[in-house]
Amino acid sequence: MARDIVSKAQDLRLYYILPNNIYVKAVDGVNIEIPRGGFLGLVGESGSGKTTLAEGLLYLIDPPMIKISGKIFYIRKREGSSTEYETIDLETLPQHRLDQLRGVELSLIPQYAMDALNPTMKIGSFIKDVARYHGRDVDEILNRALERFKLLGLPGDILNRYPHELSGGMRQRTVVGISTLLNPKFLVADEPVSNLDVVQQHIVIDFLTELVEKKIVETLLMVTHDLHLILEKSRYLLLMYGGHIVETGSKEEVWSEPLHPYTKMFLESIPPVGSRIEEKRIRGVPGNPPDLRYPPPGCRFHPRCPFVMDICRRKEPPEIEVRPGRKVKCWLFVDRKV
After folding, report:
1. Per residue in 281-324, pLDDT tens?
2. Eight-state DSSP code of residue 281
3. 145 within some domain
4. Of 112, 81, 76, 117, which Cα lies nearest the Cα of 97?
5. Spatial contact of 35 and 52, defined as CB atoms under 8 Å apart
6. Contact 103, 96 (CB under 8 A)
7. DSSP conformation class of 294
8. Does residue 113 lie in a domain region?
9. The domain that contains 259 carries what CATH number?
């Protein structure tokens, strides 16, 4: 039902154009539904296409990224109704309507958050511009910014500082705070703690979790290669490999009963929290991720898979719905005579 989904993509292909007309197939035929509500995780190795998919869900598609095919939808409550929902095809919106949605209902904490601020503007001036653009009360948004910056461990005078006067970690936390100021319904956080120390990481994760728990942010999709960061907080996981979503399900299902061979091996490569490396032999995922300029035929994981069959090398596996909300893209779950 529409009320249970905040975003969905159908047959989505997002490629990057390189010189000599070479394509990087970063998102290649993805079909997903993002559940509404709570803390969700989009997880996979570096280079799996996570960032491209995250940006695509918000229709942040700019060269050299292009959309080859597919649809991207945002589902929200119909204006003036508490029970009816409407499905918006983001591609059909005029640019000014898309810009209005972003920040207010849709928002992104970018992967390279430290570089997202205007170096010629003080933080307070930048926030004032955001508030005015979206027709919000400037003083209200500035006060909200101070409250959230305090929760993020930032100094009280930060509104009067330029970005170059802040450390890298402070700039990153500043962007995290700014991305939440208009209380978006759907917030995508792309590796928001990747350049922070452990203490700062926990500050940011706890901050985002609090916004979700208080329903200030309705749905948070955290994009990360580090499953440890979100295991405690997330309720639903999407596993991505080689431009494909290979498994989805509740955190409990994925953790206790991983279906896709990649998911199993990925989980086995993570040391238990609090353990010492010598206490448990950690198995890495052997081999290398696929080159998405020239992905292998069939299943993208087959060169690394210990359960590979002949059909895996020849045909791309279909997406199998094992039960509602639980999907896997693997030939092991299809009649092997196909």
Report:
1. 556 788 899 999 999 999 999 999 999 999 999 999 999 999 98
2. P
3. no
4. 76
5. no
6. no
7. S
8. no
9. 3.40.50.300
Helices and strands of the chain, counted as H and E runs? 10, 12
Q: Tell me which amino acid residue 44 is.
A: G
Q: Alpha-carbon distance 218 to 200, whole Å? A: 23
What residues make up the domain containing 280? 5-105+184-333
* CA 143/CA 147 separation, integer angstroms: 6
Point out which residues pair with 108 in neighbouring strands.
188
Contacts of 17 (CB under 8 A, 6+ apart): 23, 63, 64, 66
Within a domain: residue 134? no
Considering its fold, how many domains does the chain have in total? 1
Q: Pick from 45, 41, 40, 29: which is nearest to 270 by CA?
A: 45
For 227-263, write each residue's pLDDT tens digit: 888 888 999 999 999 999 999 999 999 999 999 999 9
Sign for the pseudo-dihedral over CA of 56, 58, 61, 65: negative
219-224 and 38-43 beta bridge pairing: parallel
**65 by DSSP, 3-state: which?**
strand
pLDDT digits (tens, 9 = 90+) for 34-50: 999 999 999 999 999 99
Residue 287 lies in a domain: yes
